[in-house]
Please model this.
Amino acid sequence: MMKHGSTFALVCTVALAGQFQSSAADDLFDYGKHLSGECTSCHRDGANETIPPIVGMAKDFFVAAMESFRRGERKNKAMVSVAKSLDAEQIKALAAYFATIKPKDP
Model:
């Protein structure tokens, strides 16, 4: 049976874990925002039909697309170069950032 002090410690541990998780997610978002300038110079709001928009893109889809460029499965020279210049953490950060941005209304 758990004593009152143990219950309090468990509650505090769970609360702190949630704060660290939130802080880590915020850090990832901030890092993605910092890196995003390179992306948004080409990937804008979808007005250019040859360069797809990436704002609002699902995290998993973004990561999968970037990994596909890194492996050479997708054949756009510019994107292969960009994807190969990013590490896994940078790709996850960009995915976290772009997934939260809402596309502009047409």
About this structure: Residues 4-100 form a domain with the Cytochrome Bc1 Complex; Chain D, domain 2 fold (CATH 1.10.760.10).
